[in-house]
Design a protein that fits this description.
alpha/beta, 18% strand, 7-stranded mixed β-sheet, globular, Rossmann fold, 3 domains, Metallo-beta-lactamase, Chain A
């Protein structure tokens, strides 16, 4: 399949440029060619070539060596003549000064991304490539990291080329947008953005960056480099770009539900994490009209004859965008929809795939759970999401049930389903692709987003070793990055559960009532998780009631 054809563009010196185009058009392929990681192409390109022309890259995943500390990971990238470089100013600017001696397993995803950014800037590159470095982060963390990237880049100017599918993000960061067509990609146009950026502080309090505003305000040859947030005038450009400039590349963006997805700055982005296996990473947020319910991870597995998907999303709008993204990848029939459990963010899009002919598969407890909670879900989420986003949503139980294990055949590719005992819920189901050793864990695995207990803490903890024993190379968690190393991805969740249980057992032994115990249980892990305040109290309440009867 031809990914690129007649693709010609240039990036000016010390310019921050963004490649923007529809999902699957070849943006990441372009970066891989420029980095020398993909040599199967015809054509040529030219990068800076002199003794100081170092090249750095920040990928979608941080790719840190787990046995090295934060500082060791950053110093590993330094050439010999820079090994003694004082990295303190760089660590200070990225808020990593207190984390230099920590290991990657001790970092949240947002902090790990900062380390990857530090590693790239440490070598003082002449050319910086960024492949969707903010994907899969909750919006507050992503906003903070965008600010930090731009702040460090402003203080250490270099030529930068970033791939993104987020038009709003591109307008916030770039000097120029290079708009690509659908596959095979070619350049549809350039959009120079000469309007200054605003200079507000990022979301949250960046206490560790006291010196950056002064550096940002300095004038470079091409003008001021103020930080981050999009200006009102740039917002108008966003509107024009999304609806006019991008119209040719994002053909569906002016039609129906896809328009709403794009209007929120959320193109459905499927990442190929293994051969024939794709995943979408949801926002680290509560379901809302702004995110259209797109908060959980979704999956696509393509066989020789048919495809299977894992979960359908949190709204009809999201499910329709998911279906459109699937059709950009394959025209094979969607034979199965695997529901990993009962929660609305995973099943509210079921109607779209039922109507597309998919057989819905679920845990043997799922029909009972949906019957018990379905009406409540429809009522409560109508208040949360609004009438417009709830249109068309039905509670649709599975027609194929998994008692213990079940094998799905996609033609040359078999998917192993397993029903688990009560853990996150009492209807948790996992899907395992033996061909690529990829585990779709549903909400049995959380990364970045605090785990939520709607089943049994003890049951979940007891099954962690059994879950870790699955012979997978990678996992798609229910919430978190699109893919993570297995079983390393279990470690943060396991630490949280052990700390929560220990705190509650201590409180119970001391006779501390539930109302007081939940205020302190698990609090030491607050900084490691998104949505901690939204869910930790509920987790502690459920766990206290269970542990009290040990």
């Amino acid at each position: 399949m031809t990914a690129l054809k007649d693709l010609v563009f240039e990036v000016r010196r010390d310019e921050f440029a963004c490649l923007v185009g529809p999902s699957g058009c070849g943006k990441t392929t372009t970066l891989r060619i420029l980095l020398g990681l993909d040599t199967d192409f015809s054509g040529s390109f030219q990068l800076p070539r002199n003794e100081d022309s170092r090249i750095a890259a920040v990928f979608q995943e941080p790719i840190l060596l787990p046995w090295r500390t934060v500082e060791q990971n950053v110093r590993l990238a330094l050439p010999k003549d820079m090994r003694d470089t004082d990295l303190t100013p760089l660590f200070d600017s990225l808020g990593l000064s207190q984390m230099r001696s920590l290991y990657p397993s001790e970092l949240s995803l947002g902090l790990a991304r900062r380390v990857a950014v530090a590693r790239a800037f440490a070598i003082e590159p002449a050319m910086l490539f960024l492949d969707e470095p903010f994907v899969s982060l909750d919006e507050q963390t992503a906003e903070r990291l965008r600010y930090l990237v731009l702040a460090v880049w402003s203080a250490r100017p270099t030529t930068a080329l970033m791939v993104t599918h987020n038009v709003r993000e591109a307008l916030m960061l770039s000097d120029r947008i290079i708009l690509l067509s659908a596959r095979p990609a070619h350049v549809l146009g350039y959009f120079d953005i000469r309007i200054p950026r605003e200079t507000p502080q990022p979301a949250g309090n960046e206490r560790s960056c006291p010196l950056l505003p002064a550096k940002i305000s300095r004038h470079h040859a091409r003008g001021t480099r103020p930080a981050m947030r999009i200006s009102p005038t740039r917002r108008q450009i966003v509107k024009g770009f999304a609806c006019i400039g991008a119209g040719a590349a994002f053909a569906p963006c002016c039609r129906g539900s896809w328009t709403r997805a794009m209007a929120a700055g959320r193109e459905m982005k499927l990442i190929e994490i293994a051969d024939g296996v794709h995943a979408f990473s949801g926002a680290y947020e509560l379901m809302s009209p702004a995110n259209e319910g797109a908060i959980c991870n979704l999956g696509l597995i393509v066989g020789n004859e048919a495809a299977a998907i894992v979960d359908s999303g949190g709204s009809i709008v999201e499910a329709q965008a998911f279906l459109a993204a699937i059709r950009e990848i394959t025209d094979r029939p969607i034979r199965y929809l695997v529901n990993t459990h009962m929660h609305p963010d995973h099943i509210f899009g079921n109607a779209v795939f039922r109507d597309a002919g998919a057989i819905i598969v679920g845990h043997h407890n799922l029909p009972r759970a949906l019957e018990a909670r379905g009406d409540f879900y429809l009522q409560s989420y109508r208040e949360q999401l609004g009438d417009e986003l709830m249109k068309g949503i039905e509670i649709i139980p599975p027609s194929m049930l998994v008692d213990e294990r079940l094998e799905l055949d996609l033609g040359g590719r078999k998917i192993m389903l397993r029903a688990w005992k009560p853990a996150h819920t009492d209807n948790d189901l996992t899907a395992y692709d033996a061909t690529t050793k990829t585990l779709f864990a549903g909400d049995l695995v959380f990364l970045g987003h605090l785990p939520t207990i709607d089943g049994s803490l003890l049951g979940w903890m007891r099954q962690m070793k059994e879950l870790a024993a699955v012979e997978a190379d990678r996992v798609v968690p229910g919430h978190g990055p699109a893919s993570a190393r297995w079983p390393d991805a279990l470690q943060p969740q396991e630490r949280y559960f052990e700390a929560l249980a220990a705190d509650l057992r201590k409180a119970i032994a001391a006779g501390i009532p539930l109302s007081e115990a939940v205020k302190t249980a698990g609090q030491d892990d607050r900084d490691d998780w998104s949505l901690f305040d939204d869910f930790n109290g509920r987790n502690a309440t459920a766990a206290y009631a269970e542990l009290e009867w040990e």
